[in-house]
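Box 3.1 A note on notation
Throughout this textbook, protein chains are presented in two layers. The first layer is the amino acid sequence; the second is a token string describing backbone geometry. Keep the layers aligned when reading.
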Amino acid sequence: MPVLLTLCTKKNKQEGFNGKLGFTTGLGALWVRKENLPTIRPQYTQTPKINPSLSLNYQKNKINAFVQADNLYTQTLNKNEFVTRTYENGLVINQQLKRNRNTNFFTSKAGIDWSINANNSLTVSGVFGSEKIIDRGDQPFFNADLSSRNRLWQFLEDELKTTVMATAAYGHKFKQPGHLLNIGFNYTFHREDEKYFFDNILPTYTGKDAFKLLSDEHVADLTIDYSKPLKYGRIETGFKFRKRNIPTNMQFFPGLHSPLDSNAGGGATYKELIPTIYGNYVFENTLFEAELGLRVEYVGLRYEVNSNHNTYQSDGYNYIQPFPTVRLAYKINESNKLSLFYNRRVDRPNEVDIRIFPKYDDAEIIKVGNPALHPQFTNSLELGYKTNWQSGYFYSAAYHRFSAGTITRISSIVPGSTLIYAIFQNAGKSYNTGLELVFNQMVSLWYSFNVNVNGYRNQINAFNVNNLYPVADTFSAATQEILSGNIKLNNVFHLPGNIDAQLTAVYLAPDIIPQGKIARRFSLDMGVKKAIQQGKGELFMNATDLLNTMIIRRDIQGKGFKYVSTDYYETQVIRAGYTYKF
């Protein structure tokens, strides 16, 4: 799917020119958290970020024309993963996957808002985006005590992503306030032109390999939304239609003693058709609130695989499914309210999740898609209570969520090989039952805070899956369960001199994932802004993972092997900027 920056637009009724100018700069990965394994190129530190932006509007009579442009240049330590693999025969392999990334992302948007009359409006706009990515990767493989290097895998990724989007939106206001009709059409073209060049360096020879991937995504979306107030409440209904087509072609160029599976390339085409209808009824009076909704969706997905692929065949799925939403609330009095919430949702696999081509950015834990992957369906039920007072509120909720067809990667090995293949699968049923507490308090005019505590029991039922690539292998897992949770504390400060500040701390307790566990995580974010120039200008500074503590550690248990992965990728970024409205 295309990735677009959100650009700020100022559209008001004042005639003439207005706009917003911005400039942001920053640094990431201020210090090295873990030194590289021997014999590889340095990892990125103090990575620069440069982001100018401009938004212009011209208002004249019934026409508002707008133009926006945004350019982000950034260097990033995109991956810095240390892995220790241990096999049942006693073999231990230590490895590091480091990716230094340079990205330039340009986005522009232009369009016209036409107020045809008091009841009708039309907006037509277009977007162009270009993202250039250069990755330089190193992946050494060592023995258990790091005394001998078995292999060095180096690569250069050269990728260009291009996005073109055209949008038209029509709005009609009926005489009755809140009686609305909106019709929109959007077409998106997104191209991924990706090339990898590998150096496979072993003690006795060096091989040079490459692959090229070209993917063209075409998406057409039509939406019709209608809302009408009634004597008691209002109704909302509509229709959405999506058609998506993504032809993809992978070409391998093997070198000396190549590890690439050149018979797993070729063409594949993803075809998706989704018509959806929905309806909601919303009601509120002095005692009750209610929202009753139903979305009915048909999905027809077909993934066509070239006949020469060595493992996979064409596959897909079709379904017609209802997705209800129910929200009921009882107002005990002006300060206390009970609520009940239920919904059903679907998480469909992305196109990249079912791609048939092995990716070799990790040379020995190889990621592959699965065209037999199906959607994940989740039901959520929540019972809540909220009490308000003049300077804050307290909210508590007991919830239960259960998912069928849980989507995850499952890792397996081929007998006689140390290569691990991580393939997307539907791992069966999972459950999450817990209690959430939220406390919000304004302590004074200059300080307030919000604390969110969430504790839950996570369970993943026993499951069996069959990984087909590169050879068939069945993996079975017993039921896993854990008591886990998370805490988020958000502090807001209103300081003298038009200065606002925010400090947020997040702690995530250890948890389970299919086939393993994920360790605890912690981060501290902050932000400060100051209004200047009579409110037209603003200075700001913010930081994500200020203390550089967010580290992702996973323990994976496979059949005949296990591994521990710790990723020190770039999470710490400090930015400063200025915006001016005119």
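The first strand starts at residue 16 and ends at 28. DSSP finds one helix and 31 strands in the chain.
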